[in-house]
Design brief:
The chain has 10 helices and no strands. It is mainly α. The chain is globular and about 65 Å long.
């Protein structure tokens, strides 16, 4: 029934009713709350280090636990980037169906799992092959699911806003695909060199710009 409704709207209906709009707002609010909880969970292993300050200077404490601090910072930025992409997607969504909601919950599953490999990455003397690969593979899955969400909405005009929405969705999908590719490459590199694999994440801004640029070039060639 929902599929017929969204397709019917694409042919000229006025838009979703207030009940569906309210549900869409509730889905967005739920994802915001889940992301906030995941970000809070990230800091808990770092907070547990605070009692050690009673027997050590702050500088020495931070130096001894640089792994936990770096993994927290990287994961915080990763989740923030995932959330920003999700917000941009839902800015272009005016209706929903069961598949979009299912993809959203799959995306949330990855988000709430991220604190677990983050804690594993920060434990021990330094990044190991297994913990680093697991961590980067989790980020890869998150980026792939995000790109799948955007691709799904792109193929269904009945779920989208009008105006420049399709162009914004194309650019968003290009950035998410570039992020997924970088995470995947980093995961493969981590199977042999965990530290360089993590350093590859510094290239994320370059990768997303490259993805957007390739999408623009592809569209020019089609014209």
């Amino acid at each position: 029934m929902e599929r017929r409704m969204t397709h019917g709207r694409a042919r000229g209906a006025t838009g979703p009713g207030p009940e569906r709009t309210e549900v869409l707002h509730r889905v967005a609010a739920f994802t915001d709350a889940a992301v906030a909880i995941a970000l809070t969970l990230l800091i808990l292993p770092v907070v547990e280090l605070a009692p050690e300050a009673a027997d050590a200077r702050v500088g020495a404490l931070l130096a001894d636990h640089v792994g936990e601090l770096v993994s927290f910072g990287v994961s915080f930025l990763a989740i923030a980037a995932f959330w920003r992409g999700h917000r941009r997607l839902f800015e272009q969504v005016t209706d929903y169906d069961d598949t979009l909601v299912g993809l959203t919950f799959l995306w949330l599953l990855v988000i709430v799992v991220i604190p677990f490999p983050t804690a594993m990455l920060g434990a021990g003397e330094g990044p190991r092959i297994d913990t680093t690969s697991f961590y980067l593979a989790t980020l890869t899955v998150g980026a792939v699911v995000a790109a799948a969400q955007t691709a799904y909405v792109r193929r269904r005009p009945g779920l989208q806003r009008g105006g420049d929405g399709p162009a914004r969705l194309r650019a968003l999908q290009a950035r998410e695909a570039a992020s997924a590719a970088l995470f995947a490459v980093a995961t493969v590199v981590a199977l042999a060199w965990p530290v360089p694999a993590l350093l590859l994440l510094l290239a994320m801004p370059v990768a997303t710009r490259l993805g957007t640029g390739l999408d623009r070039t592809r569209r020019r060639r089609r014209r």
